[in-house]
Amino acid sequence: MIPNTNSSKKDNEQVMNIQQPAIVGKYRVQVIRDKCIGAASCVAIAPKVFGLDNEQKAFVISEDELDDMKLLAAQSCPTAAIIVTNIETGEQVWPV
Amino acid sequence: MAIQQFQAKVSEMTKIGTTYIQFHFELSEPKNIRFQPGQYLLLNVPGTAQKKSYSITSSKDLDHAIEIVVNTAPQGEGTKYLQSLKPGDGVSFFAPAGVFSVAPQSSQVGQQEKALVFVATGSGIAPVKSMIIQQLRFENDARPIVLHWGLRYEEDLFWLDKFQDLAQAYPNFQLHLVLSKATPAWKLCRGRVTDCLQVHPLVHSAGYYICGHTTMVEDVKNLLMQKGVAQEHIHHEKFF
C-alpha cells in the first residue's frame, strides 16, 4: 500500500507504523522460492511468519514470531526451502 | 493447544494392509495431549534436525497416547527410522501442528456446509478416520458424511471393518472405495478417486476434505472447482 500523499504527516506516520513489520528475536528467515513445493508446513506452524502466494509458494509475511517457532517451521519443510540466519552472528542456522 | 515437544514410548506397532504400519506412542512427558482431528505431529528423527510430518489417526478422546499410520513403501528417512523401532523404544515429536480440520458448525463456512465429503488416498485416510469418528461419535453430526477412499490393490485395504461398523451405526455415513489396480472381480469403483467422484452425483452444499498425495489433491481441487464448488469449501492436506 502506498501512503496517501494528500494526508497529513501524522496520518502518514500512523500508516507507516502499521506497515512496519514487527521483528522478534535474532533469527531471520528467507524462502528459496525455487525449492518450495507448497507443502505449507511452515504456514501451519508459523502462520504469522509464512503465507502462500497465488502459485502456492511460501513467502515471508513478517518476522513476528519466536525464534524456536521459526526454526521449527523451517525444519518441517520437506525440501529445506527455508534458510534461517542468526543476525547476531551471521551464521546460517538451518539448513546446516 | 500450542505446539510443544513430547517424549513418548512405542507401545504397539501393527502391520495393517500390505505396506502400512500403525504406531501407538504412549506419552511420557507431557502425559496428555489435546489436538483437533486432522492435525499432525513433527517427528524428531535421529541424525537430522529435519522433522518428518505424520498425521494423527487416533481419536481426540485418546489423550494419553498418539497413533500414526506410516506407508513403508517410500522408504524415506522417517520411515526407515520408524521401522527400526520396537516396543519400549523412546520417540520425541512436536505436536499438534496443522490447520486441516472440519470447519466448526459455529463458523460461517461450517454453517454453509450441509454435508461433509472426505476424499483420501493411501495413508491420507489416517487423519480422515480421526475426523470422521469425531464428527459421528463425539459431535453427533447428523449431516450426510461421505468418504471416497482410493487405494491401488484390494489387498491394500485396511480398517474396512471399522468403516463398515460406522456405516451400520450411523446411517448418515457412506463409504465409497475405489481401486486403481482392481481385479476383474472388483464390483465397486475403479480408477482414481476423481473417477469415483465423477460417477457419484455431486453432494450439494458440501464441505470437501481432501488428504493424500499432492497430485491427487490438486486433481480433486480442480475437478471440484470446475463443478462450481467454492474454494472456501475445499479443505486439504497434502502428503509429500
Would you mind describing this structure in some detail?
The complex is a heterodimer of chains A (96) and B (240). Chain A is built from three helices and five strands; from the N terminus they run αβαββαββ. In chain A, the strands form two sheets. Chain A has a three-stranded antiparallel β-sheet, with helices on one face. With 96 residues, chain A is an alpha+beta fold. Chain A has helices at residues 9-19, 41-45, 67-75; strands spanning 27-31, 50-52, 58-60, 82-86, 92-94. Chain A has one domain: 2-Layer Sandwich (Alpha-Beta Plaits), CATH 3.30.70.20. Chain A is globular, with a radius of gyration of 16 Å. Helices cover 26% and strands 20% of the residues of chain A. The longest helix of chain A is centred in the first third of the chain and has 11 residues, at 9-19. The model of chain A is unreliable at 1-18 (pLDDT under 50). Chain B is built from six helices and twelve strands. Chain B has two domains: 4-97, Translation factors (Elongation Factor Tu (Ef-tu), domain 3); 108-239, Rossmann fold. With 240 residues, chain B is α/β, with parallel strands linked by helices. The model of chain B has no long low-confidence stretch (mean pLDDT 95). In chain B, 24% of the residues lie in helices and 35% in strands. Chain B is globular. In chain B, the strands form two sheets. Chain B has a six-stranded antiparallel β-sheet with strand order 4-3-6-1-2-5, covered by helices on one side. Chain B starts with a strand and ends with a strand. Classes of the chains: A alpha+beta (96), B alpha/beta (240). The A-B interface holds A 37-41, 43-45, 47, 69, 72, 75-78, 80, 94-96 and B 3, 42, 49-51, 53, 94, 97-99, 214, 238, 240.
